[in-house]
Structure formats: C-alpha cells, structure tokens
Amino acid sequence: MASATAAKRGAKAPAAGIPHGSQPFLQSVNEYFDKAATLLPHSKGLLDQIKVCNSVYYMQFPVRINGEIQVVEAWRAEHSHHKLPCKGGIRYAETVDQDEVQALAALMTYKCAVVDVPFGGGKGGIKINPKKYTVEELERVTRRYTVELIKKNFIGPSVDVPAPDYGTGPREMAWIADTYTAFNGREIDAIACTVN
Q1: Domain that holds residue 166
Q2: What is the reported pTM?
Q3: What would the pLDDT profile of 9-19 be if each residue is shown by its tens digit?
Q4: Are 121 and 43 a contacting pair, CB within 8 Å?
C-alpha cells in the first residue's frame, strides 16, 4: 500500500529488500554512476576504470590527548588520478568511515568533470568529534595526520590538495600547510598544498 501511495505522489518506492535510506553511501553513488553510464558511448572497461577509487589510505596513528595515548583512525581517498592534483575536503566526524570517504571522493571527481575543472576527486576523514578536543589537541591530530599523508605521498600541490569540510576550516588548513612546508620547504609551491 505504501508503494502505491508513493507512486501516486510521483515518488519512487525504495528498491525491494532495501529499507529507504539504509543503502551504503558508496553503493548508492555507484548505482547513480551506472545509471548515467548507460547514456554514454564509452566501453565498459573505461567506465569501470572511471568508477573505481584509485587509492585509499587507511591509517591509525597515536596522538597524546590529555596525557594519554589515543589511537586515531583516519582515511584519505583519491578517487581519480586522470587529472592531477586530486582535491577534496577533510572532515572530522565520529561517523566518518571508508565508505563515506570513497563516496565523497567519487562525487568530487564527477563534480570537477561536469564543470571541466582540472582536478581528480579526493576526500579525507578523521574519526573524531572536534568538539571534544582542545585546540592544542586538534592541532596535534591534524599535524600527525598530515605527516602520515606526507609519508605515503598522499598530499602535495601536484598530487593531492586537501580543503576544509565538515568539522574543519582555515585553521586546520593552516596547520596542514605549515606541516607540509616543514617537510618540503625546498618546494617552491609547498604552501599550495591546501585550499582555504
């Protein structure tokens, strides 16, 4: 009965077996991609390459918080390397996970492609609630995250340029830029490693 009511109002009923709103974010993004891809003249192999996330870096690192060592979980996804650098925000949220980071990186790729901006899509996430940390603790977490990205070449003006997102802003971008510059001070464009 609910499906008939939804159809009368012009709304689509949720897919059978999947309660509305419970589908994983990345799966949902990929299903929309697949639907749009049917309208394109490209080969399946090329479309599969466009859809997959090229690189995901999952990390756990220790940070001293309130005199104790806390292990922090974080991610950085680079969805597409077809145009470099990748760009995309870094979010601080207790709910962030790999599925969300990959889905948002994919959406950034598609947004950049639609408006013909020469970037691949990226997204980062740190699994913390920034409201539960002091400014000094947030700085330690942010700088340590940046060091982890530097070690794996997941940040840099020609590689991957982070930007603010949920729970972050210009302050965090300044810490990232400062940390990156401290490790790469000889690069003439080192300060260009973030977008404010």
Answers
A1: 53-193
A2: 0.82
A3: 344 444 444 45
A4: no
* CA 79/CA 106 separation, integer angstroms: 5
Does the pLDDT value for residue 1 go beyond 60? Answer: no
**Shortest CA distance to 84 belongs to which of 157, 7, 164, 153?**
157
Total tally of structural domains belonging to the chain: 1
For 79-89, what is each residue's pLDDT tens digit?
988 888 999 99
Q: Residue holding tokens 């959406």?
A: 107
Does any domain span residue 32?
Answer: no
Q: What tokens were used for 189?
A: 């464009």
Catalytic residues: 123
CATH code, domain carrying 130: 3.40.50.10860
Residue 75 falls inside a structural domain = yes
Dig out the tokens for 146 from the structure.
Answer: 């940046």
Which pair of tokens denotes residue 91? 């979010």
Q: Give a yes or no: residue 22 inside a domain.
A: no
